[in-house]
Amino acid sequence: MKNLIQKILVVAPMLLFLSACDKGFEEMNVDPNKYSEVVPGYLFTRAQLDGVSTNFTGAAYLTIGQSMQQFATYKEVPAAGDKYFNYSYSTGNWNAYAGTGAGQGAIVSIRQVIDAVSTSPLDVNKRSAARIWKAYIFHRLTDMYGDIPYFNAGEALSAKNYSPKYDTQQAIYADLLKELDESIAAFDASKATFGNADLMYGGDITKWKKFAYSLMFRLGMRLTEVDPAMAKTWSEKAIAGGVILDDADRAVIAYVDGSQTASRNFIASGLISTDYVTPGGDNVEGGKFAKTFIDYLKNTKDPRLNVISVVWTTTDNKTFTADTTTALQSGMPNAAYNNLPANFNSFSEPNPNTLLKYNTPLIVFGNAETNLLLAEASVRGWTSGTTAATAYANAVRAGMRQWSLFGTGGTISEARINAYLAANPYKATGTTAQQMEQIQTQKWVSLFLEDEYEIFSNWRRTGYPVLTPTNYPGNLTGGKIPTRFVIPDSEETYNKTNFIEARTRQGGTNTLSSVVWWDK
């Protein structure tokens, strides 16, 4: 894994500019440090890495993590989600995903992969995996920004199209679901795959189908408030096709503690470089876990609290201990301070023995989420094979078992899992609203640091967990939790006509308070 990622960094594949030449001087026009054509395997690996890790600190941690009240800060500048300040953090994903040249983004990379494997019948499995990954990338982008360039995105290099049209999110979703459906059907067990260049599944097409159906399930459920009939159709199709239900089928990318930054887990790298550098004392961006999150885990006696959270204790101010004792854990209130609070050291922060290890894996799509989607589908009457109570219990168990991937410090015993379920049983006799709140709040916990983007999208769709907005003086939203990322101002300069058309179509604003199509 380490060697593979390092190869990507050293020989990042790109198109070579070839010059016509004669009289035997062709070799002089060939750059020996660049490939003369796209190498799909290397570029697919790169697209996978870029597709999950882009702008984690600005977007997932400082904007979403704070606004979803899992993290808090006492400072103003990094308080994109804590105090609803500084929209610029949310623009980073736009530029990073769409970047070109030596720093090209995931969109350009995956488009080049698809173009490179688009003609040969022998490459059908590579093409299908690439199309599925492209759907993954674009569903994240459109969920953050709403209407975006989609059908003509990434054509600056291939077609010299520097002003792509913005497509409606409704049209994008329809095509994403079509792409998943067609890609699944096209897989052929007798043909070649990306093999080890595929960081999630090593080319296992059976698992790729489950990943694609799981993504289809997620996207289908996203439409429950805007198009219930379409949501039902695609959700039922995904369930029938077979989603990720077992631990062995989880989509996971492994990382190593290597010398190359990209080989390290980007979440650990981001948290360490941004805030959690040394035990005790002030942090770079003034971050701690949020009171809302820690209080919920403590009140429900959730054993994950002791896996993810520590308070640094000391008796001599020289030797510090990362203490996971439940009674010590305390979250910092969101938007409560604008200077270092006197009790800053008493607040909880990420456990260095689990969350802050460079060699921890990333769960791209886990069975905790799919089982929670199944529980919701059952509540809606869209599945008869599994009861909501069973699916919910399966989700809780999966969400707790997955922490064992982070080492011995993450292992939660079966006895503690059983005790949690006994103390927090599924509300089978509750109202639909109560059942939905329990399911979606569990998703807020289970997807913590696995997929903050999905937590943000699911909260906007369902309204759960119920979060009390902050109203810090001078905030950018009028005391409303942010509901959309902001498209960079540069779009009004370089793609003005298309940008303004899309902005007008989405209510005429491009702010943290704007909403996307499915957010009703």
UniProtKB/TrEMBL annotation:
SUPFAM superfamilies: TPR-like
Signal peptide: 1-22
Origin: domain of life: Bacteria
Listed Gene3D superfamilies: 1.25.40.390
InterPro entries for this protein: SusD-like_2 (IPR041662), TPR-like_helical_dom_sf (IPR011990)
Keywords: Signal
Protein name per UniProt: Starch-binding associating with outer membrane
